[in-house]
Amino acid sequence: MGSLWAGIAGGSVTPAIPAFFPKGAYVQLKAIGSAGSDWSNRLVHDYALDIAAAHALLGSHAGQASLVEVKVQSSYGHWISPGVCYNDVGYYEMPNARVVYSQNGQLRSFGIASMISWRGVWYVVHLGAILRSEDAGMVDEAASGAGTSEYSGTC
Asked: What is the pTM of this model?
């Protein structure tokens, strides 16, 4: 999550890539043609847009904001079976974690739409939104304070 935060604070997807679901894992997991292209052209593209949107949320003093924690509601974690969501293999998914940060003495937060566990490591796969109606970055449920998460099934 330190990598994710570095990308958000710096306004660049490059330092945030280590926190993102790996391409090799995505290609193994998905039962779609051109999974590698989908990873690059859709998932990473959307991640970069969402990193930029989160950076904009932090404003002109983004570098002064600091990551406090990433809150995860463990009861939201669930198994996605093979064959569901266009997948060849099963995996654990965690929707609606929250990035909690401090800026100018104030606690603030926003959501991580979806994370996937791969070989025991959790990765962001959708930061601002899973589905979007336009080619634009999104920030999920920005809030003053630590905010709250509500369960949402994903796919």
From this structure: 0.94
